[in-house]
Design a protein that fits this description.
130 residues, single chain, 1 helix, mainly beta
Amino acid sequence: MESYKTDGRPQQITLQVQAGIVGIATTRVDLKIENKYTKLFDSESGFGGNILPSTVEKNAKLKDTILRIRTVINLSNLTPEQLEKAIETLFIIYSLSGGPEGEKQYEALKNDALKIDEENVIVTKKIMFV
């Protein structure tokens, strides 16, 4: 699992998600605190799973929590050949900022994608705040 450093400063940590995908996508962001995930926010309808810079929480409150970003992609409009190519070439960039590392980017790769049926793929990225 990848990580992002935090410290005691009061600045807000923000997240931005940029999805380069073919198909209809939605993204949900959850924060795991004390073994329980709590929904923070979803991508807006019609935004292709993208999320504009959004506040996660204050830097000082995030140590030892896990951010889970899950994008569900519906590829029902593609042929089987196109579907496989879309999965191979999908990319999602996650940007965190506001902590001592400044802006840090993470990528979702093919191995982060889970094909759940013939039309849908879920991409999950987890980032631990340390």
